[in-house]
Amino acid sequence: MDHNQQQDTAHKPAKRKEMTRRQFLSYTLGGAGAFMAAGSILPMIRFAVDPLLQPKQVGSFVKVIEESKVTNQPQQVDFKIHQVDGWYESDPKLQAWVTKGDDGVVYALSPVCKHLGCTIGQFGKEIPNRFLCPCHGAQYDKNGKNLKVAPRPLDEYQVKLNNGWVYLGPLEPNTRVK
Ligand code: FES
Q1: Which atom of ligand 1 approaches the CA of 137 most closely?
Q2: How confident is the model at residue 35 (pLDDT cuts 50, 70, 90)?
Q3: Strand order in 139-140's β-sheet?
Q4: Region 105-120 average pLDDT
Q5: Structural domains counted in the chain
Q6: Residue 3 maps to a domain
Q7: What residue owns the CA closest to ligand 1's atom 3?
């Protein structure tokens, strides 16, 4: 290599690898497309699995009445519970007949008739010492024992007492009727 050739090489800028317009556009549009797709797909994935990630609300108790107000005559209490079922949340209204038994234990009966699910009436209103179902005449005693028509006793709510208040939890089969 002579002296002139050496000078030419020294003054030539280093050859850079240039990006074509097509490459630039495909990188830019591809990146923007991926960003937008992630923005719309990730929330969908999160929405799909979200209920699986949430802690399940199980066995929550609701404060319904002061313990001192509970007598040996069944009293109607109305209350609401917050339910979470997958993506669906609701606050259904419930009812219970709360009584203090002869054994001093507070218990709460479901008003749902065990025949076909109608709502029983007030204790002793139509028939002394009986709950009566208006639909087909099922009768129950104060403990929820089935006396006529219905095949099983009334269900009971789980009961907790705390600081002078009665709390009701999930329903369970009647434990008072032997
Ligand atoms: S639903 Fe209560 S008696 Fe039939």
Answers
A1: 3
A2: low
A3: 131-132, 139-140, 146-148
A4: 98
A5: 2
A6: no
A7: 136
